[in-house]
Design a protein that fits this description.
Elements lengths: L2 E5 L2 E3 L5 E8 L8 E6 L5 E7 L6 E3 L7 E6 L4 E6 L8 E7 L4 E2 L3 E5 L2
Parallel strand pairs: 2-11
Antiparallel strand pairs: 1-3, 3-8, 4-5, 4-9, 5-6, 7-8, 9-10, 9-11
Length: 114
């Protein structure tokens, strides 16, 4: 059974940092692209970043480029999203997804506010 469990969200001040984690199970982790999405208040869900199975390639939304970094540890079946210089507009529920299997985690809430 595929499972994705996000953690690491919370309240942070503008300019601060957070690291989100996505713990995966139930599939051959290293064979799949993993993505982070987010959904802000009153907004649709948007792709934030994704990383290939080997971790040698990644891509970012323009809104987070140069501030967020996606990484993965295939031995631990974890995907990370390091978020730096956070802005109020980054406030959202963040989800990880295995697109090829159409599975989503339940999300973790990030609130950026002073």
């Amino acid at each position: 059974q595929v499972q994705l469990v996000e953690s690491g969200g919370g309240l942070v001040q503008p300019g601060g940092s957070l690291r989100l984690s996505c713990a995966a199970s139930g599939f051959t982790f290293s064979e799949f692209v993993i993505s982070w999405y987010r959904q802000g208040p009153g907004k649709g869900r948007e792709l934030v970043a994704f990383i290939t199975g080997t971790g040698d390639s990644s891509s970012y939304a323009d809104s987070v480029k140069d501030r967020f970094t996606i990484a993965r540890d295939n031995a631990k079946k974890l995907v990370y999203l390091q978020m730096n210089n956070l802005k109020p507009e980054d406030t959202a529920v963040y989800y990880c997804r295995v697109s090829a299997l159409n599975y989503w985690g339940k999300g973790t809430l990030v609130t950026v506010s002073s």
